[in-house]
Amino acid sequence: MAAADFRYRILNFLVVMGAMWIIAGLALAPRRPLWALVLALAVTATLSWMVRRSRNVVLAAQDAAPVPQATQEGFAEEAAAQERGERVWWRRITMAEFLFVFLAIWAAEIRQRVDLVLVGAATVVALHFIGLGFVFRRRRVLASRFSTEGALMLALVAFAGTTASPLWRNFWIGVGMGAILWLSVLYTLSRPSA
Q1: Which of 2, 111, 22, 12 is CA-nearest to residue 52?
Q2: 137 Rama sector, left if φ>0, alpha if ψ -120 to 50, beta otherwise
Q3: What does the pLDDT look like over 146-164, one tens digit per residue?
Q4: Is the Cα dihedral 156, 12, 129, 94 positive or negative?
Q5: Predicted TM-score (pTM) above 0.85
Q6: For 70-82, how does the pLDDT look when each residue is reduced to its tens digit (9 = 90+)?
Q7: Could you tell me how far CA 163 lies from the centroid of its own chain?
Q8: Strand, helix or coil at 106?
């Protein structure tokens, strides 16, 4: 799989995950406005279209300006080895994320604190970005990690205590995590070389 194709698959995944977080936040809100769900789905469709369009433009430009054969052969072996290593770590980190999200949900259910399900899942996702930041060593992944953690910490601090409704806490965590993922996609699309 070409690096550009892999990049745009990740971006599409982030668009869908952003929609999942926002819909989860809306589903747990005390009031569930239909217009917000329709807006979230419209933004998801628009961002998916933008990712697909950007991918097609980049791949067409790569086809129009091929790299000389000598340059391709010189870096192909090293790039393939690096990509294999990244994919192995990607799988390990993703499997660990799924395991820990399951454990966070299970712990919330065992303690009968369903209001902490999104908090636990958001914490695991923030830690997931730390691991990906070390594997890929990319600024946008690190920026996403810091913003995810920052939004999570702000949401927990702002709504901690007995005065905050657990439903509103879940709403803000879901909407905040989704918005951060979508902003990460927009940032990446605005910088083709990033």
Answers
A1: 12
A2: left
A3: 566 666 655 655 554 445 6
A4: positive
A5: no
A6: 555 656 677 677 7
A7: 30
A8: helix
